[in-house]
Batch of 3 targets.
Target 1
Amino acid sequence: MVRRKELKNVARGIIESFNSRNNDVDGYWGIGKLFQFANSHNVSTVHINLTTGEISPASNQFLSLVNFYQAMLESQLQARGIPSTWIVSVQIDVSFNQVFKPSYHAFRSKLGLPCVCICSISDDYGQVHVAEAGNNCFPHDPLKENRRSFIC
């Protein structure tokens, strides 16, 4: 019998994938592209609502990323037998220039600045199931990065 506490595992699966180097936008690391986007809009956090498909600050640049994670959410729910009616909202928040956390960030890393990614799933009982991941990153710079050669 499936339980709503399984939603924590769904959130963990989504955020671990989102935080990975395999999360890309146009062949470049998605989080680096989001960091560049946040800097250009003078914000430190980008919000992605997987329920509505909206991103804040608003942009059409990340539609493929949003669509991919909406599909992943649906796949995760189906694989676990969780009815979509249990879901009220699913939000991914990516915060840049964060405080150093030893569990997420390499000390004095040359790999960039600390960032934290959080996936929050609100269910129909009012519970919020949260998973968090972090890493170090730089804003996207095509002059310093190699683009993935195979793009879907």
Target 2
Amino acid sequence: MSKAPEPTPAGYILIVDDHPTNVALLSTILAADGYPIRTASSGLGALRLALAAPPDLLLLDVNMPDLNGYDVCRELRASEETRDIPIIFISALDAIGDKVLAFEAGGADYITKPFQVPEVRARVATQLSLLRHRREMRRLEQELTERHRQIESLKLALRDRPPVSSRRSPAPAPPPSGEAISRQVVTVLSTELHAFNRLSEEVPPARLLADLDYHLALVTSTLEGHDAEIERFRADGVTAFFRSPAVAVRAARSIQRRAARQNLARPDDSPPLLLRIGLSTGPVLLARRGDAMRDITLIGETVSLAARLHTEARPGGILMDDATFAAAGHPDDTRRLIMRVRGHAGQLQAHELVPAAAPSSR
């Protein structure tokens, strides 16, 4: 037994023929495949039904007493609500000229009577599949347009925000070499998108790039709002550092809350963008380069540990080392863990903080 085609994208199939036998046969064939069916016995009746409640597909006879199929097709193509409905002509007229007239009127396909059941089913399934793809493309275009609008809005907000350096004490003049190196104790924050390789394979490229642009803009704006300095951008994450461990923890919470809200606004068929965040506090070798000392390099075990912690964090979660937990004043809603971390000798005491708003994997 052949597999029944997928149901219509939404709505119903409209069958139009002035011969009750043809209508009954086509209705039986397609209803057995699970398609909702409506029928009309005249061209005018078909127009009234289609304009009142547009179907997903029309099976349309040519010769009818009041209004022929060509005229019905032209009328539907002239209306914005019905112009995209696929129309399959089913007619005893088999001359080339008749078929040309059907396609010129806006028909999508043509079946000659007497028809074969497998042919009707196959052509109906093909047109509905094409309709599904067209609707999905329109949805993606609308989604990308909205994402672009959100990105531009976020860029404007970032542009209007004074630079981080302007909200602090003036930096000392750089040495003549154009490079400044110092040892400092900072809190390093490292982020990573969960299952990024799988996302890059499953999500269409254009939508993935829009997602990443908006996602990185969201993380960056949150970090800047907490006076962080960003050391490195990656395709799937960011590395930044803070002078205050408590501020670093607040920034991590804020990033996860905003990421959770972003995921709630995503379409149901889009995989969520789930962040892992690692926090580590300790000494680093900090190098600043360039005329404005804006190029930053962090070196040290603190940086490596933050990256290892984000790898071990659950999707949507935050892991911090014991030094960050203590220096940040023992934040609430944490769970003490004893764990082994890749690249770290022995067992490590860490603290897990999972924001309540963080979504789970779908």
Target 3
Amino acid sequence: WWHLTSVYDVRENFHEGDTFEVDARPNGEMERVVKCIHLTPWLIKAGYIDEAEIVAMFLEQADDILLQSFRDTFPYIRDHKLLSKTAIHALEISSHDVPLRKKYSPLYVSKKREEWLNERNKAPGKLLTPGAQLEGPFSPNIESICVNDILAHFKPDEIVLIGGSRLKGYGTVDSDIDVWPLNELKNNSKMYPGSPHAAHIFFNAIWAGGMSVKNIGDIVKDIISLYDDAKTRRLSLERIESDLLQYRLLHKGFSRVTGLKLFETSSYLDMDGDCPFYNDEYRRIATMLYAKYVLIPNSNPY
């Protein structure tokens, strides 16, 4: 946790995912937060950090983004009496000159953004796999995807990768199926095999081949080995993680399956408390998913 206090996260990754297009971001920037700081109240509750450490960290730290993130937690800490009145008063006085976090708005509203906003506000359809175990395994969800029907649209020697919310357990009857033909990925300048930007596709999807494909296992092994690269490994893992835990389990999948819309922290908007990030069950599922699936097997194990 102390190590993560130096990591600037994209704030919306932990809320609704409203990051808008790259060219619609003012100066190419997105709103940042030190998200682990928003878990400070629970670390105090559990006894992992004490009042002296909290006060010392805030008074000695000069980084605005960290201090802004820390200040977001003050109302929750105060309401739940997690620190003494003296400590809270000292923190509030010390934070007086910390600038407010800059809130960005998109430079323009695209058609894609309009569609996303409409999708966000629309009531979800009926779940395809009610009672699905969101932490996996995902294999019981494959039946709802109808893989053979998808393969019927491709040549017998083609390989496709199939993923999306249906595979992950929170798909609805009107959810799209994400399908990526392998040959198209190979010719894509950004999403080619080995690209960290495409890691979530190659690791978080079903690999399916037509009747003429006999060596799909060898093909999978060869492509997965491309990710055993120390230079891009961290970015690849982050992409796998965000696909499984944030986009869209956190943003809509968890609430869709559990029916939970309001959380203990919903009124604490400075912490973006109106989202599942602060729910114990979400964090349990996220921990299980991370342990099981956010990994890149070493092609040359000891």
